[in-house]
Amino acid sequence: MTASAPVVRADARPPVTPHVPTTSHWGAYSVRPEADGRLDIRPHPADPAPSPLLGNIDGALRHATRVRGPAVRRGWLEHGPGPSRARGREPFVEVGWDEALDLVAAELARVRDEHGPQAVFGGSYGWASAGRFHHAQSQLHRFLAQFGGYTASRNSYSLGTSLVLLPHLVGRAGTDAVLRAASSWPTLVQHTELIVAFGGIPAKNVYVTPGGVTRHRTPGHLADLATSGTHIALISPLRADLPEGLDSTWYPVVPATDTALMLGLAHTLLTENLHDRAFLDRCTTGFDTFARYLDGRTDGTAKSADWAAHICGHDADDIRRLARRMAASRTLVTVTWSLQRIQHGEQPVWAGLALAAMLGQIGLPGGGFGHGYGSMGDVGDHGPQLRLPHLPQGPNPVDEFIPCARIADMLLHPGESYEYDGEQRTYPDIRLVHWAGGNPFHHHQDLGRLRRAFARPDTIVVHEPHWTATARHADIVLPTTTSLEREDFGGGRRDTHLIAMHRAVDPVGEARDDYDILGELAARLGFGERFTEGRTPRRWLEYLYGEWREELSRATRADVPGFEEFWAAGEFELPSGPSDFTLFEDFRRDPDSFPLGTPSGRIEISSAAIAALGLADCPGHPVWLEPDEWPGAVAAERHPLLLIANQPATRLHSQYDVGAHSMASKVAGREPVELHPDDAAVRGIRDGDVVRIFNDRGAVLAGARLSHGLRPGVLRLPTGAWFDPAPNDGDGDGDVPLCLHGNPNALTADVPSSRLTQGCTGQHALVQAEKYEGEAPPVTVRRPPPLQDGASVPRHARGPRSAAGGDRDHADHADHLPPLDRPETP
Ligand SMILES: Nc1nc2c(c(=O)[nH]1)N[C@H]1C(S)=C(S)[C@@H](COP(=O)(O)OP(=O)(O)OC[C@H]3O[C@@H](n4cnc5c(=O)[nH]c(N)nc54)[C@H](O)[C@@H]3O)O[C@H]1N2
Ligand SMILES: Nc1nc2c(c(=O)[nH]1)N[C@H]1C(S)=C(S)[C@@H](COP(=O)(O)OP(=O)(O)OC[C@H]3O[C@@H](n4cnc5c(=O)[nH]c(N)nc54)[C@H](O)[C@@H]3O)O[C@H]1N2
Ligand SMILES: [Mo]
């Protein structure tokens, strides 16, 4: 595969100012502002495959959607804090920084003093931008910990299901080892004869690693597979989930049925006696329970290849042939993270692990079980993982938390109980939400429901560079700088370099750093000195680097330059070291001396601990459970198409959606939806048409792209188009939003993967599609929201500090909207 790098412009003139170094979640680069205000972007010279996402930065930096100055929702300014359905529907009023910071500080203090610090939700999930010091979540968590504490969030949207499930199956260290990949890419290229890739190895994803990556090596490793003799079984509804040019077979499986296919493969291994009984006896526990389920002794149904074929839409003989080939080859079973981002997402991960255990190759080079090859750039990278400098956050004095994907449940159902990893927990009553560095109106499911949830708190504060949908649903928006507007240093897990991030341009508008904003708030709240420790950002960089340098020099004996030298050089190439990936090799050799951290010390093919919880949605061994959103579901009668909402190829999530590379992919100004020509033909849809995609939760408008590269009945609408709810959407209160731009989370369901893990389930949704007749309403989200001049708007008479906003029964300010207390649909 060759990387496309549409970002480097021919540069004939001699440079006015030099390019300065920086990095991003999608790679290191250098940048120089041009006389005409544009940016010249050059990938890092050591990067063999720069990311196409670099092409988004130039167009986005000074886009009209940058938040120019602090802004307050008009109703909040006039009436003070309180629940309101007007969020996301009212104009904003521009105020000065001092007034905005006074309002936020007073409201934080009011909520803490009246309700306790746990009434502040500071989970603030999101990717923010690269940079170790100006990391928005670290800054916010440090601030809120010193403020008195906050309700936190746990796990991630990426891996919410696996992070809770896998420790039960392989222990904590085993989970780390599985997620960093069974074998390195070069080991796969050398040893693996067959990769059975559930969800494929989507090359579009491998440019991204949290914190950054200097050398993108995975695209090269993928290209090497073309000449290594490795065969790849691409199991995915999308052909694009594997690069062209590899020796592969495409199994266009029915979405959400991978578990059934895995069970059919496992049944074939069992009945044809192709499983490794010795490995199962030595290294696993609970195989016999699983075998009784496979052969039908448990429930009367054998999970045969014929049974599986019926569910996953594949020929039974093909399934049997694949099972035999797996047993005869050095085989890697790998499962992308997307497969656990659906209801019952535990099952494909657990069944994949069980299947690999039956092959008996876990711990052998190039064999066994992998999770996330192609999901993230650093999976399969076995370089040393060095601790990089980081901002100390301090302990949170409040121990309240939620699994991150339960945000809407928490806001809508305070005091209600829920289960999580065997615990019975209660949702706290949140009065203030403080978000920095994430976009829940991109990342959460069922955005109509999230709007109802965001109507509940007294106050929502958002730090954002752009007028994202989250900013538009806030009460107080504080404009923040992006990486190019401040000094920092950055690098990703397993990165080869620490990159100095020089300031390339002045802050846009009145934007301030998150650090600066929080320092000002801390000063107003009486802990300014404690928060800043008297340091400017530059002094922090010197301090954090200095501590780290000492530690690294001690640990590696490497010659680590002083800060000035590092800063002037623009980077420091990190010392290399031995790889630390021997856990499963050691375990395989001697499971008694190297037990996994599970109750049995072995791989748990059945888990007595999970079985004891008695959860119907996650029993004690891998099972086929029908999700609500799959083509075989009852709901498919009305909404027969299965929408895949996967990661976008043209941006990172919702970041820089207005950037040039992302914009170039839009169709009719909207997010492209790929559909099969047969599905288009019966609906009269042609390439380039605006289509309306809908279900009972919402509707979106998207631009049609016809493709034979997906299974009929499947649509692909990637995540990240900025949510743009039509003003008079649905029944008028946004319960059923119409997103004019094509954000798939207007359609997805806000249900957990299971009561064990509470992971998010955004990857799939059942929908119907039709051609949009007439002229489609234009996208509005690429303009800022209506802004009013602060001088003309009266402030709440009592001032927010004394406002009675804590009373849930007090009148909703937006009279035209239905009352808040209408019953919630779960
Ligand atoms: N339907 C569906 N939904 C999904 C998924 C799916 O598969 N399907 N995938 C999920 C996954 S895996 C993830 S990780 C999430 C991602 O969800 P998020 O991480 O929330 O998405 P981002 O768009 O990266 O949001 C980061 C935000 O931070 C802002 N930002 C950047 N730099 C700074 C800064 O320095 N300071 C501040 N204050 N803000 C900054 C950006 O402008 C942006 O709005 O989405 C999830 N949502
Ligand atoms: N360009 C780019 N790269 C990214 C990101 C980004 O936003 N943009 N985000 C990063 C983040 S935060 C994360 S967590 C990772 C996520 O990594 P993943 O979760 O692995 O990525 P996705 O693209 O959501 O899904 C991978 C593929 O799974 C396939 N798939 C979906 N449903 C099914 C199914 O039921 N069965 C089978 N067999 N296949 C299915 C889809 O066709 C999809 O292309 O990506 C990272 N990389
Ligand atoms: Mo993610």
Textual characterization of the structure:
- It is a single chain.
- With 826 residues, the chain is of the alpha/beta class.
- Among the domains are: 160-214 and 224-384 and 583-603, Dimethylsulfoxide Reductase, domain 2; 634-771, Barwin-like endoglucanases, CATH 2.40.40.
- It has 25 helices and 31 strands.
- The protein has a 7-stranded mixed sheet.
- Residues 1-8 and 798-826 have low confidence and may be disordered.
- One ligand MGD binds at residues 126-129, 134, 136, 157-158, 341, 436-439, 442-443, 445, 463-466, 468, 480, 482, 514, 645-646, 652-655, 719, 744-745, 748, 762-763.
- InterPro entries: Asp_de-COase-like_dom_sf (IPR009010), CT_DMSOR/BSOR/TMAOR (IPR041954), Molybdopterin_N (IPR041460), MoPterin_dinucl-bd_dom (IPR006657), Mopterin_OxRdtase (IPR006656), Mopterin_OxRdtase_prok_CS (IPR006655), Prok_Mopterin_Oxidored (IPR050612).
- It holds the Pfam family Molybdopterin_N.
- Its cofactor is Mo-bis(molybdopterin guanine dinucleotide).
